Amino acid sequence: MPPPHPGIQANLLAALAVQTHQPLKTPKSFFLYYFIIGFQRERKENIDCVAKKIRRSAMEVRSVWCVLLISCLLHKNSANNDFFTSIGQMTDLLFTEKDLVTSLKDYIKAEESKLEQVKQWAEKLDALTATATQDPEGFLGHPVNAFKLMKRLNTEWGEVEDLVLRDMSDGFISNLTIQRQYFPNDEDQTGAAKALLRLQDTYKLDTQTISTGDLPGVSSELPYKSSLTVEDCFELGKIAYSEADYYHTELWMAQALRQLDEGEESSIDTVTVLDYLSYSIYQQGELERALEYTKRLLSLDPDHQRANGNLKYFEYQLAKQRKVEREQKVTEEKKEREKREMDKKKNFLPEKRKYEQLCRGEGIKLTPRRQSRLFCRFFDNKRHPYYLLGPVKQEDEWDRPRIVRYHDIINEREMEKVKELAKPRLRRATVHDPQTGKLTTAQYRVSKSAWLAAYEHPVVDRINQRIQDLTGLDVTTAEELQVANYGVGGQYEPHFDFGRKDEPDAFKELGTGNRIATWLFYMSDVAAGGATVFPEAGAAVKPMKGTAVFWYNLFPSGEGDYSTRHAACPVLVGNKWVSNKWIHERGQEFRRPCGLLPSD
Asked: Is residue 592 within 8 Å of 516, Cβ to Cβ?
């Protein structure tokens, strides 16, 4: 169980201070208490009784405030977690930290001012006592000197004592306690660490590239490029280790060791890193390397108890393994069979591999012949009155399924207004649970989203109307405009927008049928990563600010188009804002007539 929140501890100590009858800090109680003490000679018993009541009242008030503060902090912390799932909301943390730095500087100035006063007093008294002690009787023979000595020792040294004991940190600690309720928690730190590991795997980045901050899409001239210290690498390795992810534990402990070997100063010692590294390698079945690192550890710390035990165990297991290898002879027939099995699997790629390849820009299945059929055009949607004189720019992104992109379809002011409306409402994005039919959070969707209704602002209403005019579909039965902001390594793994046959109740509560089509606005450029990919089709659509893409999820027959299964790739560098409109079947009966064949 984690230790109590430091802010909570401070308040608990304050309450305990009252219970142990320490001097009261509450101003009214302070003055009232000492006013009563002035009459203690005449009414000592009554005064003691009143003082006890004051202490009891103060204790009760402090206890109540302590409980209220604890409740508030716990509520706030629970309400403001998942920071790592939205870059947009994480920006607020930077301003919180800037405010704390300002507060800390004010505290430093106050401490320096206090020390300067004490220093001046000490220097003055040092010169005075040096002169006085040369001839004490002669010095005190002067009545003014004698008076001032009495005054200094009786009054002025008490003032110096008060000055030295004065706590200049109250303002900073109060500000820190208030701001702490908005701090990320352990879940956020772990989530951000896992995001780095996810980016490492998806984009095939080595630990050195991540550690130096030289990521694709990051200019070397940028002032905010950052690197990882030994402590950072060690922390990433520890988080992977806590998840029994020994592969990433090895990678990041090896990086921490490399930086230590290069001479980087760190509070993390080489022995601790080697301890984690050797064990993670052993867990992956590489006994020889695990033994090698264990020997290096013992060369630095011969008395390391666990390493000495591991050394004997690793040597025993390695000898046993070599003996088995000598005795076990694999026949040529078995090797040939294994080769044939590998050849069969060679052309098969699991969906996750396809998805990651497309995110890296690999494996796109667009032949020159198919590409020649994709065009750009000015589009007015069958001479729609609004677009007759000012048609929009439409581009074919893909042929099967047909995905089209609309350029310059939403302007800067509209995008900023949508972000402004959505940001205060951003909550962890949810997915439909096929078992329960309810919305729930999932690790494979790392973002925050908010919903905007048409009546909330003219901009939202205007956007909805634009979608209807360009698609020819009725959006009155569509879902509200969903706005999403992706966090550190933000992603949404492969999924369908429409409900499948094994999910008959997916949108039952809406009463508007299945999701017939998807309209997706890109409201930011992304420096690296963040593409929308379709693993089954082998398509990848890159985010372009001010554009929108559109595709049908269902065939005219109402059957689902399984080639529309898509994903949002992890954001490697940048901040990704999107908004989407899911259009439903109801209301489209005459706008998109049903086909006779399943694939129509």
From this structure: yes
- Residues facing residue 449 across a β-bridge: 427, 484
> Would you state the structure tokens that stand for residue 9, as one six-digit string?
């501890």
Paired sense of beta strands 571-573 and 492-495, if any = unpaired
574: Cβ contacts below 8 Å, ≥ 6 apart: 217, 524, 525, 526, 527, 528, 529, 530
Least confident of 81-90, 140-149, 370-379, 528-537: 81-90
Helices of type H across 328-376: 332-346, 351-359, 368-371
The per-residue pLDDT for 284 is 93
Around Cβ 34, how many Cβ atoms within 10 Å? 11
336 confidence band (pLDDT: 50, 70, 90)? low
Q: Where are the beta strands (DSSP E) in 402-443?
A: 403-407, 427-428, 431-432, 439-440
**Alpha-carbon distance 191 to 183, whole Å?**
14
**pLDDT at 320 (0 to 100):** 86
Number of CB atoms found within 10 A of residue 582's CB:
23
The reported pTM is 0.75
- Strand, coil or helix: what is 3? coil
* Residue 589 pLDDT > 50: yes
